[in-house]
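Bumping my old thread because nobody answered last time. Still need a sequence for this structure:
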């Protein structure tokens, strides 16, 4: 989990350019759990696979799940590099990093509590999650919890056609 201020670089050469504040981005990502996130992974043959997922930003870390036998799981097993893309409050956001299954019981329980708070009735069972239903891209239970370590986060301000706050955060 990242609990430090990343380096912020402005992207673009426009008048009155300024970087966004990381604390504001954290608040934006933490307070917008609804909506589609897009996870991109890469196969051993270099093929990109992008799929919609439920990903949640908790304690400055992205968490998501995968059931058994999914392509995203197979890709992450052999190459942990991935990205998550989303739109929130007029910002297009791309988070790049590496993802790995977490077996930390406290983390899994905390993530389960968060899932329950957004109406996904999961239960912790044997170091993974179980639920009465799932999204078609999740695959069958048990659902392992992935923790994404951030490398870079790109935030593009698209409010009212603005381009003067596009920022790259490097960890």
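Sorry it took so long. Here it is:
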């Amino acid at each position: 989990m990242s609990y430090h201020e990343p380096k912020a670089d402005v992207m673009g050469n426009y008048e009155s350019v300024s970087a966004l504040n990381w604390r504001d981005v954290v608040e934006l990502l933490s307070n917008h759990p609804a909506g589609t996130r897009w996870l991109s992974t890469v196969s051993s043959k270099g093929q990109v696979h992008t799929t919609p997922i439920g990903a949640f930003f908790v304690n400055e870390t992205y968490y998501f799940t995968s059931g058994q036998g999914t392509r995203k799981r197979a890709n992450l097993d052999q190459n942990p590099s991935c990205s998550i893309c989303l739109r929130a409050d007029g910002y297009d956001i791309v988070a790049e990093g590496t993802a790995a299954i977490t077996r930390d019981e406290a983390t899994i329980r905390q993530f389960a509590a968060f899932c329950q708070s957004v109406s996904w009735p999961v239960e912790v069972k044997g170091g993974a999650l179980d639920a009465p239903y799932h999204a078609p891209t999740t695959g069958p239970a048990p659902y392992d919890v992935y923790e994404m370590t951030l490398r870079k986060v790109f935030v593009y301000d698209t409010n009212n056609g603005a381009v003067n706050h596009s920022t790259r955060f490097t960890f």
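The chain has three helices and eleven strands. Let me know if any region looks off to you.
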